[in-house]
Amino acid sequence: DLSHGVALYLDDISVSFDGFKALNKLSLSLDVGELRCIIGPNGAGKTTMMDVITGKTRPDAGTAFFGQTIDLLKLREAEVVAAGVGRKFQKPTVFEDLSVQDNLELALKSDKRARATLFFRLSATQRLRVEEVLEQIRLHDQAGRRAGDLSHGQKQWLEIGMLLMLEPQLLLLDEPVAGMTDFETDRTAELFLSLAGKHTLMVVEHDMEFVRKIADKVTVLHEGSVLAEGSLEQVQADERVVEVYLGR
Ligand code: ADP
């Protein structure tokens, strides 16, 4: 039962590249339905952490569980996706020549658990899911539009929508509002707040105004481990965090 408890549990994770510790005994856990922001200077280990969660990088040591029972370190990348982890990289990667709706349908058809749908028409439930996601990402009036003609922000929402088609329990999002207009950023904040609860979100973000809008809890990474954790106000008041951001 994932309706309570821990969605993601990382303990003592270490990753070295040629002796350099990109992650150094990193421990972090997310509750089910939580919206957590991850901040930290360049090189802090944020990307490496996401790579470990998604099976792209194997740690030298440590534990990583998805929910109570799924040992992430035993799964390959595709199996992590199938288990319910969706990852969004910074740059949008939608199929530019397809319509918004076709992009969403394609995401559904790419689901390994439902491969048969490649050859069949969408079921009523699936059509409903497309409608639901179009509403969530606020592209319901753009369903027929060529994805390549969308604004940068709309492309990012569409890609989030493509992840949502697979109903992931955990969403990992890397700098989702980079390059967005203020209006798009506000809408993205609303979207994330509406997704929290139903999904667990881990958002890596540098835009502190955006973080302020969405996060209950912020984790600051530095030199491969957790430097501070708490509300944005708490971590911003932490001397060690101030020092890291201002440089020594
Ligand atoms: P962040 O995402 O917080 O900027 P990264 O996880 O990308 O940090 O990187 C952490 C550190 O590990 C950086 O110093 C980076 O240069 C190093 N690193 C990341 N990936 C590799 C790799 N494949 N080979 C060597 N060094 C790497």
UniProtKB/TrEMBL annotation:
InterPro entries in the record: ABC_AA/LPS_Transport, ABC_transporter-like_ATP-bd, ABC_transptr_urea_ATP-bd_UrtD, BCA_ABC_TP_C, P-loop_NTPase
Gene3D superfamilies: P-loop containing nucleotide triphosphate hydrolases
GO CC list: plasma membrane
Key words, A-Z: ATP-binding, Nucleotide-binding, Transport
Molecular functions per Gene Ontology: ATP binding; ATP hydrolysis activity
Domain ABC transporter, chain residue ranges per copy: 8-248
Pfam families cross-referenced by the UniProt entry: ABC_tran, BCA_ABC_TP_C
Methyltransferase is among the record's keywords: no
Protein name: Urea ABC transporter, ATP-binding protein UrtD
Native species: Thiomonas bhubaneswarensis
